[in-house]
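Exercise: predict the fold of this chain.
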Amino acid sequence: MKVTLLVVGKTTDKHLEVLIEDYVERIGHYLPFEIKVIPELKNVKALSQAQQKTMEGELILKAVGTTEVILLDEHGKERRSIEFADWMNKKMSAGRDLTFVIGGPFGFSEAVYQRAEGQISLSLMTFSHQMIRLLFTEQMYRALTIIRGEKYHHE
């Protein structure tokens, strides 16, 4: 099983980038994991929010291929870390490649919602798309250590 985090636009904050890369490396000890970046759209000031979502959606749909798609979305299901670990363990047992997607600033197009097999919310609070990358990679690492019974998570 391979896990991909698909994001729109590069991480621009160098401090976040270092932390994210640390978790990506840690996750790699447990399973194949990569962050795939879709370039930001050009000339977005000339586009409406709906046009941006549609254009980003086309790029997302092209990038996910045949993997199982889970959107990181404010309307998704919230899980505690232990619940997420249990969910991930079941996904790993199924063996199908999995792509988590962080959309652009205006969210996902309807076509992306229709393609996705699920949605996860990391919090009721709103975070920047840059911060969500760090929060997600940390939670993925945490889930994998929980699955293995390692001491990273204290509960």
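Check your answer against the key: The chain has a mean pLDDT of 94.
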